[in-house]
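Hi Q.,

Before the meeting this afternoon, I wanted you to have the iron/sulfur cluster prediction in hand. No need to reply - just skim if you have a minute. The sequence and ligand are here:
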Amino acid sequence: MRVVLWDTRKLDVAKDFAGGMGIGQFPGNGGILGRVVRHFFKRDTRPVALNFAYLAAIFRKLGHQVEYSLDRVPRGADLYVFNPSLITVALERQAMVQALAETPGCRVFVTGAVANSLAEAFDGVNVTIIKGEPEQLYWKLDEALASTERTVDVGKIKDLDALPFPDWSPFKPRKFRIGFDFSQFPTAFIQQSRGCTLKCNYCPYIILENANRLRSPERIVEEMRAGIKAHGFRSFKFRDPLFGVDRKRVFRLAELIGQLPRKIQFSIESRLDLLKFDVLKALREVGLTSITVGIETPSEETLRRYHRAPIRDDRQRDFILQCRALGIRTVAGFMIGFPEDTEESILNVLRYAKSVNPTFANFNIVTPYPGTEFFQVIKSQIATFDPTQYTVYTPVLKYKNLTPERVSELHAKCFKSYYFRSRWLVTAGPVLWPSLRKFGLGEVEVPAEPLPVHAGPPKPHLGLNVIERPADGAEAEHACETRHHDAA
Ligand code: SF4
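Predicted structure with the ligand bound:
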């Protein structure tokens, strides 16, 4: 069978982010400084979505011919597979119609987060909606092809280690680079785990599952080894929303990464209170260069309203300082544009971002993803249901105290004001360009390990079970008070 994986990079989409819903890019409004910020956002060529690399491997393992097509719709394939993002829904729909018209008898599969949450976007087009995880096609392809139903639910993968390694060869992987995380390229996506046990009600990562599944460190490092050999990957971006739930596995992973034949760089994404100093040190020693975390807003009231548990301010500051002392970049997500936001509350987010001072601050405009609880709760306050606007850089809600234009202006101001200041340059510079440390720049006193963050009674809505194994190997679980990253 000839299989075409259809894709697009139009509209500045990055499909693998926001739980597979995809995000756009900062439009660069707000004059020349805004355009400078946008320039840095645009430099990267992010890898294609990880699920497409898995699907390439899966279809080949099953004996099919796989080709990747960017924006074109080649004729004559037996199966066209789409992984739409929200912002490219219209383009993808158009390509599906074209495939069906030009290749009579072909099948079209729609997979991924949008297939799970917004299947109605493809109403009227003769496609098969694949619900669940697309990689389940490894086991259920025949069933999906045989089905005459509009929707086929393939379910979730029981054992992530049973998947073949992603196959990047159809995607020109030598071009992949993510400059805010790494200085060495090409870059691949990789995963240590899937899912999250927390309950932030706006988060697209938990639409499919509210639990964690983990891969073995041995399989992960084998995958890295294969990617280094086949494509020369020099850096790996872990796409887990919650890296490091199991400390023992993290230390084992660090040990194995340290045994790779060449030094690599890697980045992770997690809740900052999950990553204690000993973990940071162990990972840094074997190539950790960057950590993405969510800080979101200093307003505890806002966080709790949307079921996100706060972390103490001093813990957040200490974490950023610890990372800076170790030379690890921090990429912190902040959210602005809640319906009740005021000019002052948005400027408070900016002030707080500057005071915590991560290497990179990413200001996202609150976006109601279809399929989330937030979307349902806030439905009457959504100004547009046009998915192409859901870039995380476009105001899409009705605001009680602000116009959408004012939200956009304040958003641009956050970016400009954050980066164009001397303290950012002085603190971020030595982390981004380590050679500056030779001149005594960037010296940081490491804050003492903070007090235990798990103290106090568990909060019923938080849902986090941290796995910590005591020395005897017995497993203990306890609830942890926290809030987490921006799910970008
Ligand atoms: S902690 Fe992160 S991944 Fe988990 S629910 Fe919250 S935003 Fe989503």
